[in-house]
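My main concern about presentation is that the manuscript never shows what a single data entry looks like. For the editor and my fellow referees, an illustration may be useful. For illustration, here is how one protein appears when written out as sequence plus structure tokens:

***
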Amino acid sequence: MTVTWSEPHVGSVCLDVCCGTGDLARMLAQQVGTEGQVYGLDFSTGQLAIAQQRSLQSSHFRSIRWVEGDALQLPFNDSQFDAATMGYGLRNVTDIPRSLQELCRVLKPGGKVAILDFHRPSNSQFRTFQQWYLDHFVVPLAEGMGLRDEYAYIGPSLDRFPMGSEQVDLAYQAGFSKAVHYPIAAGMMGVLVATKGSH
């Protein structure tokens, strides 16, 4: 849904911010084809190394360029991209408004960004279930792999993360002309889709 809602086309130039190991970037590459170009950006050299290794397994992904960079200071020109995505990154940046401003800046007029992330559901039962699942399954499993700290932060980060309606407001404040938030998975996840004005 995230990739589809960003509306990449054959020949598009696309950006995946906070790309991690490159899942969304590879999906974008499938959409833009050999005529298009995809940039996967992350600040982690380790994640980028994995992304690059995975993309080498298929010639289909030669249209991806992996870039080390900061989501708050994107190393790209104004109005460079037709479409952009971000998966599980907005919740982790230190300045959400700044990150949205940067995404708006680098999109071409009429371009869309789709941002996927975990959320706190508004329904109290789903919220309780989500926290129980994190506490009793996700964190213990991560602890068994020596990654407790990397996953224990999810709960507190969800408490701080703006709700869908707040994300829409922040997108407008960042300069987008249209913004819609789609809750998915009973509100435990969501996708913010924002469009840059054509003028």
Residues 38 and 64 are 5 Å apart (CA to CA).
